[in-house]
Write a structure and sequence with these properties.
Elements: H1 11-28, H2 47-62, E1 69-73, H3 79-88, E2 91-96, H4 99-111, E3 118-122, E4 135-140, H5 149-159, E5 160-173, E6 184-185, E7 189-190, H6 197-203, E8 207-213, H7 215-218, H8 221-240, H9 244-251, H10 258-264, E9 270-278
Helix pairs in contact: 1-8, 1-9, 2-3, 8-10
This protein binds S-adenosyl-L-homocysteine (SAH).
Protein backbone atom coordinates (compact mmCIF):
# COMPACT_ATOMS: atom_id res chain seq x y z
CA UNK A 1 0.00 0.00 0.00
CA UNK A 2 1.91 3.00 -1.19
CA UNK A 3 -0.52 5.60 -2.43
CA UNK A 4 0.29 9.03 -1.01
CA UNK A 5 -3.30 10.00 -1.69
CA UNK A 6 -4.92 7.11 0.17
CA UNK A 7 -8.02 8.50 1.88
CA UNK A 8 -7.72 9.24 5.59
CA UNK A 9 -9.27 6.65 7.91
CA UNK A 10 -12.89 7.03 8.91
CA UNK A 11 -13.73 8.16 12.43
CA UNK A 12 -14.93 4.60 13.15
CA UNK A 13 -11.59 3.14 12.10
CA UNK A 14 -9.65 5.56 14.30
CA UNK A 15 -12.03 5.07 17.21
CA UNK A 16 -11.95 1.26 16.95
CA UNK A 17 -8.17 1.29 16.74
CA UNK A 18 -7.76 3.36 19.91
CA UNK A 19 -10.55 1.50 21.74
CA UNK A 20 -8.73 -1.76 21.09
CA UNK A 21 -5.27 -0.45 21.91
CA UNK A 22 -6.15 2.15 24.57
CA UNK A 23 -6.41 0.09 27.78
CA UNK A 24 -3.20 -1.84 27.06
CA UNK A 25 -1.32 1.26 25.99
CA UNK A 26 -2.47 3.16 29.06
CA UNK A 27 -1.22 0.45 31.35
CA UNK A 28 2.05 -0.15 29.49
CA UNK A 29 2.85 3.42 28.50
CA UNK A 30 0.66 5.91 30.38
CA UNK A 31 -1.75 8.67 29.38
CA UNK A 32 0.43 10.23 26.67
CA UNK A 33 -0.27 8.57 23.34
CA UNK A 34 2.96 9.72 21.75
CA UNK A 35 6.65 8.89 21.41
CA UNK A 36 9.01 9.35 24.31
CA UNK A 37 11.95 11.77 24.07
CA UNK A 38 15.19 10.52 25.60
CA UNK A 39 18.53 12.29 25.78
CA UNK A 40 20.38 9.16 24.64
CA UNK A 41 20.74 5.40 25.09
CA UNK A 42 21.81 5.72 28.72
CA UNK A 43 18.84 7.92 29.62
CA UNK A 44 16.76 5.70 31.91
CA UNK A 45 13.73 8.00 32.03
CA UNK A 46 10.42 6.19 32.50
CA UNK A 47 7.74 6.32 29.76
CA UNK A 48 5.91 8.97 31.80
CA UNK A 49 9.02 11.14 32.09
CA UNK A 50 10.06 10.67 28.46
CA UNK A 51 6.61 11.36 27.01
CA UNK A 52 6.10 14.40 29.24
CA UNK A 53 9.54 15.64 28.16
CA UNK A 54 8.44 15.45 24.53
CA UNK A 55 5.38 17.54 25.40
CA UNK A 56 7.69 20.10 27.02
CA UNK A 57 9.88 20.19 23.90
CA UNK A 58 6.78 21.21 21.92
CA UNK A 59 5.46 23.61 24.55
CA UNK A 60 8.72 25.58 24.33
CA UNK A 61 7.96 26.07 20.65
CA UNK A 62 4.30 27.01 21.04
CA UNK A 63 5.25 30.34 22.58
CA UNK A 64 1.94 30.84 24.42
CA UNK A 65 1.07 32.18 27.84
CA UNK A 66 -1.87 33.23 29.98
CA UNK A 67 -4.65 34.76 27.91
CA UNK A 68 -3.80 32.65 24.84
CA UNK A 69 -6.10 30.03 23.36
CA UNK A 70 -4.55 26.82 22.02
CA UNK A 71 -6.16 24.17 19.84
CA UNK A 72 -4.89 20.64 20.53
CA UNK A 73 -5.83 18.87 17.30
CA UNK A 74 -6.04 15.12 17.94
CA UNK A 75 -5.76 15.34 21.71
CA UNK A 76 -5.85 11.67 22.73
CA UNK A 77 -7.04 11.37 26.30
CA UNK A 78 -5.95 14.89 27.13
CA UNK A 79 -2.68 14.48 28.96
CA UNK A 80 -0.64 16.83 26.71
CA UNK A 81 -3.42 19.47 26.75
CA UNK A 82 -3.40 19.47 30.55
CA UNK A 83 0.37 19.81 30.59
CA UNK A 84 0.28 22.71 28.10
CA UNK A 85 -2.34 24.53 30.18
CA UNK A 86 -0.49 23.77 33.42
CA UNK A 87 2.88 25.03 32.28
CA UNK A 88 1.82 28.04 30.21
CA UNK A 89 -1.39 29.31 31.78
CA UNK A 90 -3.08 29.20 28.37
CA UNK A 91 -6.59 27.97 27.75
CA UNK A 92 -6.63 24.74 25.70
CA UNK A 93 -9.36 23.20 23.59
CA UNK A 94 -8.62 19.56 22.79
CA UNK A 95 -10.44 17.81 19.98
CA UNK A 96 -10.49 14.16 18.98
CA UNK A 97 -12.58 12.06 16.70
CA UNK A 98 -13.11 9.41 19.38
CA UNK A 99 -16.04 9.87 21.79
CA UNK A 100 -14.41 7.52 24.27
CA UNK A 101 -11.27 9.69 24.35
CA UNK A 102 -13.34 12.85 24.90
CA UNK A 103 -14.96 11.20 27.94
CA UNK A 104 -11.61 10.04 29.31
CA UNK A 105 -10.04 13.46 28.71
CA UNK A 106 -12.90 15.28 30.44
CA UNK A 107 -12.47 12.98 33.41
CA UNK A 108 -8.70 13.63 33.56
CA UNK A 109 -9.31 17.40 33.44
CA UNK A 110 -11.85 17.17 36.25
CA UNK A 111 -9.49 15.09 38.36
CA UNK A 112 -6.74 17.65 37.75
CA UNK A 113 -9.12 20.47 38.70
CA UNK A 114 -8.51 22.14 35.33
CA UNK A 115 -11.90 21.91 33.61
CA UNK A 116 -12.20 25.69 33.68
CA UNK A 117 -9.24 26.12 31.33
CA UNK A 118 -9.06 22.83 29.42
CA UNK A 119 -12.03 21.71 27.38
CA UNK A 120 -12.48 18.66 25.16
CA UNK A 121 -14.81 18.22 22.22
CA UNK A 122 -15.68 15.57 19.68
CA UNK A 123 -14.62 17.11 16.38
CA UNK A 124 -12.87 16.28 13.16
CA UNK A 125 -9.58 18.19 13.12
CA UNK A 126 -9.80 18.51 9.32
CA UNK A 127 -13.13 20.35 9.58
CA UNK A 128 -13.49 21.80 13.06
CA UNK A 129 -16.30 24.30 12.62
CA UNK A 130 -14.40 26.74 14.87
CA UNK A 131 -14.48 30.40 13.90
CA UNK A 132 -11.68 31.69 11.68
CA UNK A 133 -8.77 33.29 13.54
CA UNK A 134 -9.95 32.06 16.93
CA UNK A 135 -6.73 30.41 18.22
CA UNK A 136 -3.29 31.74 19.06
CA UNK A 137 -1.59 28.40 18.43
CA UNK A 138 -2.29 24.86 17.24
CA UNK A 139 -0.63 21.77 18.66
CA UNK A 140 -0.87 18.56 16.62
CA UNK A 141 1.01 15.91 18.51
CA UNK A 142 1.35 12.69 16.50
CA UNK A 143 -2.17 13.12 15.15
CA UNK A 144 -1.66 14.31 11.56
CA UNK A 145 -0.58 10.73 10.76
CA UNK A 146 -4.30 9.87 10.75
CA UNK A 147 -5.37 12.75 8.52
CA UNK A 148 -5.16 14.07 5.00
CA UNK A 149 -2.23 16.39 5.67
CA UNK A 150 -3.02 19.24 3.24
CA UNK A 151 -6.65 19.41 4.42
CA UNK A 152 -5.65 19.43 8.08
CA UNK A 153 -2.99 22.12 7.60
CA UNK A 154 -5.36 24.39 5.68
CA UNK A 155 -7.99 24.04 8.41
CA UNK A 156 -5.48 24.84 11.16
CA UNK A 157 -4.28 27.86 9.23
CA UNK A 158 -7.89 29.03 8.93
CA UNK A 159 -8.55 28.90 12.69
CA UNK A 160 -5.23 30.55 13.58
CA UNK A 161 -4.86 34.25 14.18
CA UNK A 162 -2.33 35.91 11.87
CA UNK A 163 1.14 35.24 13.24
CA UNK A 164 -0.15 32.23 15.21
CA UNK A 165 1.95 29.09 15.27
CA UNK A 166 1.41 25.46 14.44
CA UNK A 167 3.66 23.00 16.24
CA UNK A 168 3.33 19.42 15.08
CA UNK A 169 5.05 16.06 15.03
CA UNK A 170 4.88 13.55 12.22
CA UNK A 171 6.44 10.26 11.22
CA UNK A 172 8.51 9.38 8.18
CA UNK A 173 10.29 6.27 6.91
CA UNK A 174 13.98 6.11 7.73
CA UNK A 175 16.48 5.91 4.90
CA UNK A 176 17.27 2.24 5.35
CA UNK A 177 13.63 1.35 5.73
CA UNK A 178 11.61 -0.72 3.32
CA UNK A 179 8.82 1.77 3.88
CA UNK A 180 8.17 4.70 1.56
CA UNK A 181 6.67 8.13 2.22
CA UNK A 182 2.92 7.89 1.83
CA UNK A 183 2.89 4.26 2.95
CA UNK A 184 -0.10 3.52 5.03
CA UNK A 185 0.27 1.88 8.40
CA UNK A 186 -2.63 -0.51 8.43
CA UNK A 187 -5.70 1.47 7.45
CA UNK A 188 -5.32 4.03 10.19
CA UNK A 189 -2.18 6.02 9.56
CA UNK A 190 0.31 7.06 6.90
CA UNK A 191 3.83 8.39 6.92
CA UNK A 192 5.12 11.66 5.51
CA UNK A 193 8.48 12.57 4.04
CA UNK A 194 10.90 14.93 5.74
CA UNK A 195 11.93 16.39 2.38
CA UNK A 196 8.33 17.14 1.38
CA UNK A 197 7.46 19.00 4.58
CA UNK A 198 8.56 22.50 3.53
CA UNK A 199 6.39 22.21 0.40
CA UNK A 200 3.47 20.78 2.32
CA UNK A 201 3.48 23.74 4.71
CA UNK A 202 4.04 26.29 1.95
CA UNK A 203 1.15 24.86 -0.08
CA UNK A 204 -1.10 25.39 2.94
CA UNK A 205 0.03 29.04 3.07
CA UNK A 206 2.16 28.58 6.18
CA UNK A 207 5.66 29.94 6.80
CA UNK A 208 8.14 27.34 8.00
CA UNK A 209 10.18 28.28 11.06
CA UNK A 210 11.75 24.97 12.03
CA UNK A 211 11.88 21.43 10.70
CA UNK A 212 13.78 19.04 12.91
CA UNK A 213 14.47 15.32 12.77
CA UNK A 214 14.27 14.11 16.38
CA UNK A 215 14.55 10.38 15.66
CA UNK A 216 17.77 10.16 17.69
CA UNK A 217 15.64 11.04 20.74
CA UNK A 218 12.47 9.09 19.94
CA UNK A 219 13.91 5.90 18.48
CA UNK A 220 13.92 4.14 21.85
CA UNK A 221 10.14 4.26 21.98
CA UNK A 222 9.34 0.95 20.34
CA UNK A 223 11.52 -1.26 22.49
CA UNK A 224 10.37 0.55 25.61
CA UNK A 225 6.71 0.11 24.70
CA UNK A 226 7.39 -3.61 24.37
CA UNK A 227 9.19 -3.61 27.74
CA UNK A 228 6.13 -1.88 29.19
CA UNK A 229 3.73 -4.40 27.66
CA UNK A 230 5.77 -7.33 28.94
CA UNK A 231 5.96 -5.73 32.38
CA UNK A 232 2.23 -5.18 32.72
CA UNK A 233 1.10 -8.22 30.76
CA UNK A 234 -0.06 -10.27 33.78
CA UNK A 235 -1.85 -7.35 35.45
CA UNK A 236 -3.49 -6.39 32.18
CA UNK A 237 -4.72 -9.89 31.51
CA UNK A 238 -6.09 -10.20 35.04
CA UNK A 239 -7.81 -6.80 34.95
CA UNK A 240 -9.21 -6.93 31.43
CA UNK A 241 -9.81 -10.65 30.99
CA UNK A 242 -8.03 -10.73 27.65
CA UNK A 243 -4.54 -11.55 26.51
CA UNK A 244 -2.14 -9.17 24.79
CA UNK A 245 -2.45 -11.35 21.69
CA UNK A 246 -6.24 -10.86 21.76
CA UNK A 247 -5.74 -7.09 21.89
CA UNK A 248 -3.50 -7.24 18.83
CA UNK A 249 -6.08 -9.43 17.11
CA UNK A 250 -8.79 -6.85 17.87
CA UNK A 251 -6.63 -4.13 16.31
CA UNK A 252 -6.17 -6.10 13.12
CA UNK A 253 -9.09 -4.74 11.09
CA UNK A 254 -7.57 -1.26 11.32
CA UNK A 255 -3.97 -2.25 11.58
CA UNK A 256 -3.21 -5.63 9.99
CA UNK A 257 0.47 -5.46 10.93
CA UNK A 258 -0.29 -4.56 14.53
CA UNK A 259 1.64 -7.45 16.01
CA UNK A 260 4.70 -6.51 13.98
CA UNK A 261 4.31 -2.83 14.72
CA UNK A 262 4.13 -3.68 18.39
CA UNK A 263 7.58 -5.13 18.03
CA UNK A 264 6.72 -8.79 18.20
CA UNK A 265 8.01 -9.11 14.68
CA UNK A 266 10.12 -6.61 12.79
CA UNK A 267 11.40 -3.49 14.48
CA UNK A 268 9.65 -0.54 12.87
CA UNK A 269 11.96 1.92 11.14
CA UNK A 270 10.02 5.06 11.79
CA UNK A 271 11.52 8.51 12.10
CA UNK A 272 9.94 11.42 13.94
CA UNK A 273 9.98 15.09 13.00
CA UNK A 274 8.93 18.32 14.61
CA UNK A 275 7.64 21.09 12.36
CA UNK A 276 6.96 24.65 13.45
CA UNK A 277 5.25 27.10 11.12
CA UNK A 278 3.13 30.21 11.41
CA UNK A 279 0.29 31.89 9.62
CA UNK A 280 1.70 34.93 7.83
CA UNK A 281 0.73 38.31 9.13
CA UNK A 282 -0.75 40.02 6.11
CA UNK A 283 0.81 43.40 5.57
CA UNK A 284 -1.48 46.08 6.90
CA UNK A 285 -2.10 49.34 5.14
CA UNK A 286 1.10 51.32 5.11
CA UNK A 287 3.32 48.26 5.42
CA UNK A 288 4.57 49.15 1.96
CA UNK A 289 4.27 52.79 1.27
CA UNK A 290 3.72 53.76 -2.35
CA UNK A 291 6.55 55.52 -4.05
CA UNK A 292 9.30 53.92 -1.96
CA UNK A 293 10.88 51.52 -4.39
CA UNK A 294 9.37 48.30 -5.58
N1 LIG B 1 -1.93 14.09 20.82
C1 LIG B 1 -2.29 13.01 21.72
C2 LIG B 1 -2.86 11.79 20.97
C3 LIG B 1 -2.03 11.24 19.85
S1 LIG B 1 -2.79 9.80 19.14
C4 LIG B 1 -1.11 12.64 22.57
O1 LIG B 1 0.00 13.03 22.23
O2 LIG B 1 -1.31 11.96 23.57
C5 LIG B 1 -3.65 10.50 17.73
C6 LIG B 1 -4.92 11.24 18.11
O3 LIG B 1 -5.47 11.82 16.92
C7 LIG B 1 -6.04 10.40 18.69
O4 LIG B 1 -6.62 11.11 19.75
C8 LIG B 1 -7.06 10.29 17.55
O5 LIG B 1 -8.40 10.10 17.98
C9 LIG B 1 -6.88 11.65 16.95
N2 LIG B 1 -7.42 11.80 15.58
C10 LIG B 1 -7.18 11.03 14.51
N3 LIG B 1 -7.84 11.51 13.43
C11 LIG B 1 -8.52 12.61 13.85
C12 LIG B 1 -9.36 13.56 13.21
N4 LIG B 1 -9.67 13.48 11.93
N5 LIG B 1 -9.85 14.57 13.95
C13 LIG B 1 -9.57 14.69 15.27
N6 LIG B 1 -8.76 13.82 15.93
C14 LIG B 1 -8.24 12.80 15.22
Amino acid sequence: MTSPSAPPPTSDQVTDYYSALGPLLRMAWGDNLHFGYWEGPSDGSSPQEATDRFTDVLVERLGVGAGCRVLDAGCGIGSPALRVAGSTGAEVVGITISRQQVDQAVELAERAGMSDRVRFELKDAMDTGFAAESFDAVLAFESIVHMDRPTALREWKRVLKPGGRIVLTDTFPLGDSVRQPGDTVGDVASMASLEDYPGLLADAGLELEELKDVTEHTKFTFTRVIDGILRCRKDFEREHGMTVEEVLEAMKPAHPQASQAAGFGASPQVGCLIAVAHKPVSPGPGARRPGRGS
